[in-house]
Write a sequence for this structure.
């Protein structure tokens, strides 16, 4: 084998090794089309202003873009998103919300979280806000 042939073989092996690494190393472990359902059972209307999910692998909360949303008592709101870095891994959802004061203004910083679930494509996760 000549040096030129050896170099080509080494480059090909390196390219194969790079493409054979785990998807998470390349950021491709996206859990697609996860439906998140938030059930309001607080006895009053709430305003959700933040949604996060926990990445156990990295030990961090990841924020999901979310526009403020009012949910009346006894109702739920759902939306679907892709969650990065948690495909086929355990995660959980956390929501932060406000309630109204006597003057009708949104106040407070309350949190609720769901149960841990294994994130798979097209899964549904529920958070019951009490």
């Amino acid at each position: 084998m000549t040096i030129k042939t050896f170099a080509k073989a080494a480059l090909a092996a390196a390219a194969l090794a790079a493409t054979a690494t785990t998807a998470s190393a390349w950021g491709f472990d996206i859990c697609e089309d996860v439906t998140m359902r938030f059930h309001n059972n607080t006895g009053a209307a709430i305003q959700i202003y933040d949604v996060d999910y926990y990445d156990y692998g990295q030990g961090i909360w990841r924020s999901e873009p979310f526009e403020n949303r009012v949910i009346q008592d006894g109702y739920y709101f759902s939306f679907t998103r892709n969650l990065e870095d948690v495909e086929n891994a355990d995660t959980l959802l956390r929501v932060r919300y406000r309630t109204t004061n006597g003057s009708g203004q949104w106040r407070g910083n309350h949190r609720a979280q769901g149960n841990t679930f294994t994130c798979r494509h097209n899964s549904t996760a529920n958070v019951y806000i009490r």
User: Anything to note?
Assistant: Residues 3-19 form the longest helix (17 residues). The helical segments are 3-19, 23-26.
